[in-house]
Specification:
This protein has 168 residues and is mainly alpha-helical. The chain contains eight helices and no strands. The protein is 68% helix and 0% strand. It starts with 7 loop residues before the first helix and ends with a helix. The model has no long low-confidence stretch (mean pLDDT 83).
Length: 168
């Protein structure tokens, strides 16, 4: 009830004694906010990213933890990219729609595929830093992120060379 009502502090208090269930709570509540990126972001930030870290908090099912880490990464990535890409005067509804579309795309495709339309306007370090950081927090996706990093570095190198040649 607290998650659905977006009362994150109370939801955190309720989950605290049952910390091994925290990933399950996050994953179940995730679907409640199907069309609301901001609510999904707040869910991940308040119940997952800022959780207390105790050895006993480990979930007995590591795949649940992996999925929560993946959702956290996707939310951070989308937020960072849209913060760099969108102007302050753009509609928050438009931002929400773009973020939800990106979340849906990231479920099925690689990071580079999902953000291909945003690459020309992004500073190189934005995606490179996030992918590099996430390859250590999500070892199960290490190969995918390494591949994306190689392709991304090549893309930015070619873009830089072409910029020098064309005088951009």
């Amino acid at each position: 009830g607290f998650c659905k009502s977006r009362i994150w502090g109370e939801a955190n208090v309720v989950v605290r004694p049952f910390s091994q269930l925290r990933p399950l709570v996050v994953l179940i509540a995730w679907d409640e906010f199907e069309d609301d990126f901001n609510a999904r972001q707040q869910l991940v930030v308040n119940l997952w990213r800022n959780r207390p870290s105790f050895p006993a908090d480990r979930c007995s099912e590591p795949r649940l933890t992996q999925w929560c880490n993946r959702l956290d990464f996707n939310v951070r990535l989308i937020d960072t990219v849209l913060n760099h890409y969108m102007t302050a005067d753009e509609d928050s509804r438009d931002r929400n729609d773009k973020a939800i579309r990106l979340l849906d795309t990231l479920r099925l495709h690689s990071v580079l595929y999902a953000f291909r339309d945003y690459l020309p306007g992004l500073p190189p370090k934005v995606l490179i830093e996030l992918l590099g950081e996430s390859s250590t927090t999500q070892p199960e996706r290490g190969e995918e992120f390494e591949h994306d990093l190689h392709v991304l570095r090549s893309y930015y190198a070619i873009r830089c060379v072409l910029g020098l040649i064309l005088g951009d």
